[in-house]
Amino acid sequence: MRAGDVLPxxxxxxxxxxxxxxxxxSRDYQDVHHDPELARHRGSPDVFMNILTTNGLxxxxxxxxxxxxxxxxKVAIRLGAPNYPGDTMVLTGTAxxxxxxxVVVKVIGDNGIGRHVTGTVTVTLPMGEVE
Length: 131
Description:
The chain has helices at 16-25, 36-41, 51-66, and strands spanning 6-13, 71-79, 88-99, 102-111, 114-124. By secondary structure, it is an alpha+beta fold. Strands 1-3-4-5-2 form a 5-stranded antiparallel beta sheet, with helices on one face. A hairpin with a 2-residue loop joins β4 (102-111) and β5 (114-124). The longest helix is centred in the middle third of the chain and has 16 residues, at 51-66. It is elongated, with a radius of gyration of 16 Å.
């Protein structure tokens, strides 16, 4: 792995189950993440994914690429366009820096209405695995 290397994209179908399950798993009981009627009442066309689910998916994207010995040291993300059920988010990544066993990956996630997430993930690997 060298600075500038690109990770393969990962397509994630945004299902109602994923949105609701992610909210429940992260104990985020805001109605906009599980109740379509109340979400519409608040101005959203449907329920939408919470930031903690997105954070987990970004981490998964990086560890899926680097393998089980990868250790996430820092995940910093910013949300943009919401992830609604029925859409697909495509995560892409680029190695920004590689320093010994530490790699900083810039991650972008786009969906049908725009950029859902941008951020960086710092991951460490045992020596010899960053090549």
